[in-house]
Every structure is written in structure tokens, then in C-alpha cells.
Amino acid sequence: MATYEEGSLEAALQAGAEAEEEDVDDDDEGVQEHLKDAVEGTLRLKRMLSQDDEAPEFEELGGKKKKAKIVSERSAEDEAKITQLLTQWALLQDRVTRHVLEGMTGEEMTAMIASGYAPDHFNQWKSPPELVHTHVALTREKVGPGSGAVDTIVAFRARWKLGPETEPVLRKLSHKDLRYVVNRFNGSEFALEELVAQAATAEHEESTATGALPDAPGCAMMGRFGRLELIDPLADCAVFGDADLSFAVKLAKHRTALGHVGRVIATTFETLECLRERYSEIDDTIKTLEDHFAEVFHGVDCTRIAVNENFKGLEGKFGCVYYNFPHAGAVKGFFDGHPCVNWRHENLMRLFFRALRSFMKPGGLVKVSSSKQAVGIRYYYICDGALQSEFQHIETVPFQEWHLSKYNRSYGDKRDAYRRPEKGEGYNVQRAEFDMLYCFKYEPSGNAPGPVKIRMPPKFGVLAACTDGPFKSLVGEGKKALATQLYKRFVTEISGEHVG
């Protein structure tokens, strides 16, 4: 799953640019110049899929005939490391495991060789490529504050890599002083000690909600703001992926009760017709939202809002955005953590945050909830995707402590047609105490952050060579047919269309 920045995609785009020049305008879909960064990642991934030199002619998948093939520029040294690992593990012919290793950096492979790690060939639950993929993910997740609860001070120290000696200093600060330090520290202009001294003599700002209780304990007070959802009362906010809109209703009522004048933009990925099949109450829910001056948009792909007409004119308007329990959709026969499908979950988070950049106000908040034990949308994907697009991690709140947590959880798929909360069939597929709310603040530097890093999908040949999941009992034409079907699904999803 090589990232574009690691060589293969940039080489591919360069190799194919001249050959498919006439297709570029179609891919750009008329997006405005200032929004091109918000959709660039999905367009590149779409071209990547359509240019797979191992796939059937792309016409068979409902698109245009491919005109360029992907050219890999992985160094000979990295190729040698991949071959060394596969040889050591007796997996030299395993294309799925090779696909996993191709997504690693040279440094990561060197560390893996030195560690002596090897996948268990006799594991009863996971195949070797799954085990390697999980091992890589867990290794990456060792860096950072962890997937569980993280307060303001821990997140602040992790961001600036401050030593343990700063912990007692920060925890002694009042609300006013801690907020002053957190908002102004940039790692270079002033030393932490200088800012702490300045904070003690700084004037108290009474004109905003953040000035409340200035002498209260700093960390506890700043944590209450997030838990009580005291957001910018003037800014608009958006909710993405809200299956039955029950969370949007709770948010709209919350903002109305606080006297906020900013709008609530509620969105669903499904069409209204699909929602009516699954949720008998959906029309009443929409009416409730409209009674609270919220707007409801259907068929919204959160990674492609730059090409959605409903979002035209909303650039720079969002003060807060919510995405509860994101998921790229299940693929029958595969667990979410399998490398043939897990790239979709990682890309979802990276493309989501990149798409938001053009629509967020500086200082705006983004809140993404997920289980800290999730193997689809891993917490690392959320935090890393945010950081790539200049959204800084400011706190992780246990979901049950959040003021807006009590809403009707749903599956977000066909199961909702017959498993509904009012029928005693509430969402119960994970343990509530593991659910977390990951909170981020948009802090643009003024410089372009560079192309979004996204994970390469498996080539058609990798899918066709897979021997587990839904491919376990398939051979010959049946296996090729399923590989073609999945490949077509991936192309369709990247094009922003709902599948399943």
C-alpha cells in the first residue's frame, strides 16, 4: 500500500500525464481553482485505479480505456528489503504480503528486519498478510499519546514533544493562564517558561465564553468546554455520515438552547429514497431539523464536498464539523483490517480532512468519534490524516462523557431496516467504554501542506492472487470474476458513488 509521496504515485502521474491529457478536464469535473486541493486526492486515486496495468480493460468496469500504466520508482534497496523479508518468511510468491510491504518506508522495513519479526503461518484467525499489516499498524501507533483518553495538557505536550518536567508546571496553571500558553506557544518564539510568566500578568478576556472562570483549574476547565460542546455560536457547523440524522437533531436542539445563530448542515451518504426504506421516521426527523433552522443534504460524500453543489459558497464558514463512527463500508467476506480492503478506511480519513480545509474557519474544530480498538478506522488513521492537513490534535474525550453522546446509534447499512432502537435492537456491536471522541483544531500555516498521502489500493493481480476472505474457496474464472467485481466496486466508490 505505497503512499503517493513514497514514489509510486508521483511517478505514475508523471508517466501517464501526457498520454491521458485529454482526460484531465473530465477528472477535474469543473471544480473551482481555490477548491482543487480539496478534491485532488480523490482524483489521483481514481486515475490510479483506472491505470492499473494488470486490470481488465477499464471499459469492462464502466470507465474509459486506460492509456497509461503505473511506473514504480521504488529504490533497488527497498526492493531488496522486500525480497529479503518475503524470503525469510517463505512468502516470496505471496502477492498480498508483498503489497503490504510496498506500503512501508525503507526505514520501517529496516526496523522490521532488525526486530526479527515473522508472521505466524499457522495462525487460526489471520493470514500472514493480515498479521504483517496489523504488526505495521501497531508499530506506527506506538508513536503519540495513544488511542485512549487524552486531556489538553497531554495532547499539548505530545504535539510539541515537551519533556516530562513540563507536566507539573502546566497542571498548576489556571484556566486563563493555560489557555494563554496553549494558544500562543509555537515551539520557537517564546520559551514555555516565558509564556507562563506572561500569562500570569495577561489581562483576562471577559468578552468571550473562553473567558469563563479564569481562576478555575486550567486542564479541567478546558476539558469541560469540549465535553459541554461550547462551540463558536456564530459559525456554521456540519455533520457528516449521520445515518438516521438523530445526532444532527441533538446538535440542532443543543445549539438552539444555547442561542447560537450559526447554521447546522446535516448530511447523509445515502439518498432520501434509501433513507425512507430504512427509517420510517426519517421525514419527521427532517422536519424537526428544519424547525430548528438546520439544512439537510443527502447523497453527500464527505471526501468530495468540493464538487458538491450544496456546499458552494460555504468556503471558510464551518466552525465545527462532526463525523461519528466513520466507516468506508464492509466488503463481504473480508474483515475490516484485511489489507485488500483496509486502505479504503485509511484513505477515507485522509481525504476527509483534506476536503475540509477549504471549508473550515481558522481555529475551527473537527470531532471524529471511533472505538479505540477499531481495526477499520484505526485511531492512527484519524490522527495522522488530521495532521497531514494541519488539524492539530487537542484532546481525546471518552465518548460517554460527551454532552452529545446520547443519540440513536445505528449500523448505517441495510440492517437498519429491521434492527432499530425503538424495537429494542439498539447498536450493540462494540463496547461503549472503548468509544472515544478525537478532537482537532484547524491551524493553517499559510503554506500549502503538500499532496495528501493516500494508500495505494491493491492491483487487480493482487486481488486475483488473494487466497483468504471471500477468495478462500474460489479458483479459475470464479476467482477472476470476484476480483473484477471488487475492483469495479473500488473504482465506483472512489468516484463518489454509494455501493451496497
TrEMBL record:
A Pfam family annotated for this UniProt entry: BMT5-like
Q: Which GO terms describe its molecular function?
A: rRNA (uridine-N3-)-methyltransferase activity
A GO biological-process term:
rRNA base methylation
Q: Which InterPro entries match?
A: BMT5-like (IPR019446)
Q: Where is this region: Disordered?
A: 1-32
Source superkingdom: Eukaryota
- Boundaries of each 25S rRNA (uridine-N(3))-methyltransferase BMT5-like domain copy? 241-409
Q: Where is the composition biased (Acidic residues)?
A: 18-30
Name of the protein this chain belongs to:
25S rRNA (uridine-N(3))-methyltransferase BMT5-like domain-containing protein
Q: Which organism is it from?
A: Polarella glacialis (Dinoflagellate)
